[in-house]
Amino acid sequence: MSHQDDVSMRNFALLLVLLIIIAISLIWGVNYYLASPQEPAGAIELRVKRIGAVNVGAVPETATASAEASNLAPGEKTYKAVCTACHGTGVLNAPRFGNKEDWAPRIAQGLDILEKHALEGFKAMPAKGGQAQLSDDEVKEAIRFMVNNAEGKTGSATTTTPAPEAKPAETTPAPVASATTAPQPEAAKPAETASATKKLDLSAYDLAKGEAVYNSTCFACHGTGVMGAPKFADASAWQDRIAQGLELLFTHATNGFQGKVGIMPPKGGAVTTSDEDIKAAVAFMVSKAQ
């Protein structure tokens, strides 16, 4: 056999090996593809969508929540989240929800006056029920919802007409003011105790979170001292409360409390706020007063 024949045989052998390797690779690739789970319909389209177009949330839950919210009458959502704390129980002479007798003298003043009092505050009623983040429209819808319910209507009609006998109704809430100011001298007596000067340990509470809750909820009353609320960072106003201990302060803030001076609605009227957030807000206010 010549040298040329040897080269030809070697090249043929190499080509055969290469073909065998290619065949094995093809067989392996086909088997791998067949064994792989198939993508569901629409998976490719979803994967190549722009980021802003992809919904990564829980679609069924969101859809359910939206459907539930859309079933609420205008103003009902705001009422349930904010107004029910006072208007559900009638504290501080707040007209009780659905009570025609409570609402009649207010309705007689006209819707414009009711909305003005709710937005700006009036006597024991803090501005926007203590929820400064609410829009004017949300507050107005809540007023209309309560008015319509008291009149036996549904929805949020905007055509309430003031009756001629409007003026006498303005004197109805008067007893509240005197109740919140007369007993003040008695509140200073416990301040003489030694425990009033002892600082409370607040290291277990998220004061930064508490500050956020204070700014969104508590500021409406504690920022000005309305309704007998101890003013923010006023040591003399807070020392009697601090002397009682954190647990009692937490209980009063969470469940509501009517004392000798004013009243604290449950969770400051923000009934959807968690107990932990309320505690953080109380701890934050205490930290600035002690």
Automatic annotation (TrEMBL):
GO molecular function, one term: heme binding
Biased composition (Low complexity): 150-185
Keywords tagged on the record: Electron transport, Heme, Iron, Membrane, Metal-binding, Transmembrane, Transmembrane helix, Transport
Region feature (Disordered): 150-194
Domain Cytochrome c per the UniProt entry, residue ranges: 70-150, 205-289
A Pfam family hit: Cytochrome_CBB3
InterPro entries per UniProt: Cyt_c-like_dom (IPR009056), Cyt_c-like_dom_sf (IPR036909), Cyt_CIE (IPR002323)
Matching SUPFAM superfamilies: Cytochrome c
Keyword flag Iron: yes
Entry's transmembrane regions: 12-34
UniProt keyword Cytoplasm, yes or no: no
PANTHER family per UniProt: CYTOCHROME C5 (PTHR40942:SF4), PTHR40942
Protein name: Cytochrome c5 family protein
Biological source species: Beggiatoa leptomitoformis
